[in-house]
Each structure stands twice: as C-alpha cells, then as structure tokens.
Amino acid sequence: MNGKTVMACLDAAHASLKEHADEIASLDQAIGDGDHIINLLRGMDALAAMRAQIEADAFAPALKLAATKVLSTVGGSSGPLFFSMLTGMAKASADDADSAGVAAFARAFAAGVEAVGQRGKTGVGSKTMMDVLIPVAERFTAMAEAGASRQDVLDALPRIAEEHMLATRDMLATKGRASFLGERSRGHIDPGARSSQLMIEAVCAYIARDEA
Ligand code: ADP
Ligand code: MG
Q: Which residue lies with its CA nearest to atom 5 of ligand 1?
C-alpha cells in the first residue's frame, strides 16, 4: 500500500459516486439540502487533479494530503467528517504505513471511524454515515482479530455496509440537517450512509480485483 493505492481507491470511490450521483442528490433533497453529492464530487475532482502528488507519497502521507484537500473543497457537514476519517486512518497507519496486512488496515479504518465519531459527536442510531461506518469497522476489526483472509473480509464488508445503509431508511434522524425534519426523516435512506456504503463497496471491489 502506498500513494498509488490511495489514489486508485479514491478513483474507485469517485467512479461509483458519479455513477450514483442522481440517486444521492435525490436522497439529500428528501431529507437535507441536496448538496451532498455536489460536495463530494467537488472534493473528488480536486483529488483527481492532484493525482501526481498523491501517487508520489507513501501511504500515510498520501492520506494526509488527500484529507487536507477534502477539508478545503468538500464543505457541508461531510467535508470535516471525511477529513477526520482520512487523518484518523493516516495517524493510525503511520507506523505500519506500507505493510498493510488485513490487521493493519482494520486498525487504520477503525481509527478513522473513531475520529469521525469524535468530530461529529455521534455513534450509531442517529441516521448518519456512522450507521454504516461503525458496523463495518466493528466487523473488520473482529474479522482481522479472528485471522480472516483478505478475500473473506472483502466479501463481508460490502454486505455489512449495504445492510446497514438500507436500515437507515426507517430511522429517525437526530443529527445533522435531516434532524430538523423530525418524524418526516423516516422513510428515506440517509445520503451520507449511501455515499459511505458506495465508497466502501467500490474500494473493496477495487482491492479484490486489482490488488489480489
Ligand atoms: P450538510 O448536511 O451540511 O448539507 P452534506 O450534505 O455534505 O452536509 O452531508 C450530509 C450527511 O452528513 C448526512 O447524510 C449524514 O450522513 C452526515 N452527517 C451529518 N451530521 C453528522 C454527524 N454529526 N455525524 C456523522 N455524520 C453526519
Ligand atoms: Mg446537504
């Protein structure tokens, strides 16, 4: 794992977000202000524009570089949250930066999710991206501790992400803009849960396909 891997994962996430842009826009129009996908794609375009720099770095510095760009371009609630995700991962992986076995990557991912929780001051149950990120981090950690193979992890995580993304539909939003709707927030999937799930799915598919 190095800057090239980081960029390839960002590319995979970017492609999936673009493909699902209309759907994510409708989700945020239903329970937010409609800008979630615009915010994310602005950031992804900016990251693609600094490809050479990201690719030239080692794993942790590449994540930090990407995080700084995300903070200055994404905006909304999700910009600072994704910044925290990437810096949290970078900090946790600084020591084992390029070694990146399943266990090291699980630790980094869990640290990223923990940082998002600290920044957004929420856990599961408030109908946000955390409802996807936390169960995925927990399963990832449990599988890594049990010595699961890379392939098993790459099969399991997208399934967990999808299941928990779908479960946000019936939840009551108690954080972020959607919470202003109260009971009317029910019946719609959370846009941040959907975008996080899509990115997790795309990155797992990329690693399974091209990093095998
Ligand atoms: P904004 O709501 O400011 O317009 P975005 O549209 O970019 O920001 O992002 C909305 C998404 O951010 C929501 O769908 C939700 O998943 C996520 N979100 C909002 N507040 C929080 C929070 N405190 N913790 C975690 N995620 C949050
Ligand atoms: Mg929004």
A: 36
Quote the Cα angle for 165-76-21, to 5°. 50
| Contact (Cβ atoms closer than 8 angstroms) between residue 124 and residue 155 | no
Cα 149 to ligand 2 centroid, rounded to whole Å: 37
- Domains of the chain (ranges; CATH) run 3-211 (1.25.40.340)
4-51: pLDDT as tens digits: 999 999 999 999 999 999 999 999 999 999 999 999 999 999 999 999
Give pTM, 2 decimals. Answer: 0.97
Q: Which residues does ligand 1 sit against, CB inside 6 Å? A: 28, 32-33, 35-36, 39, 76-78, 81, 120-122, 128-130, 175-177, 190-193
What is the reported pLDDT for 94? 67
